[in-house]
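re the bet — no i am not wrong, look at it urself. input seq straight from the record:
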Amino acid sequence: MRKLTYYVACSLDGFIGDPHGDASSMFTFMDEEYAAFMNAEYPDTIPTAFRAAFGVDGVPNKRFDTVIQGLGSYRLALDSGVTSPYAHLREIVASSSLTESPDPNVELVAGDLAARVRELKAEDGSLGIWLCGGARVAGQLVDEIDELVIKSYPQVYGSGMPMFGADFDVRDFALEGVRSFGNGVVVRTYTRKR
């Protein structure tokens, strides 16, 4: 069975963006060492428009063949005129307000997102599903998440958009690995205890 991975960037205090979802302050930590790690380990997560600049244009997907995101995350691309930000992946956008997909590569899901994820997980294939964001979508899918890859940036936001927009309910994960970088970024990988 394929797995759902929440691969996400956050502040030290667990916010994936400011109160409006802006996380651009984290971009300042993209140095040569960290970019080399991202290119080698997670090339699939680099938006299609930036793949050539990052030296991964034409590189086969390594971990994921599908990306899931909410309308807030997808809106960042739409507002810049990009209708398929991850054209090298199958794109799914959770939205009840968009009624027609602006791109043939983008599937809109207005109903039961968790049920759609279970269908995706049951498909044959060696690559997984990347949960890109945001907080509400992560909250809807928290029980379907099999792996967390948390890129913690050395910043404290104080408030903002949390990693999960979900009701209180303890869910346990096991630490599988930690990688730290000279710029202060720490990448932790956890698997779901079931």
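see?? The first helix runs from residue 32 to 41. told u. also The chain has a mean pLDDT of 95. so pay up
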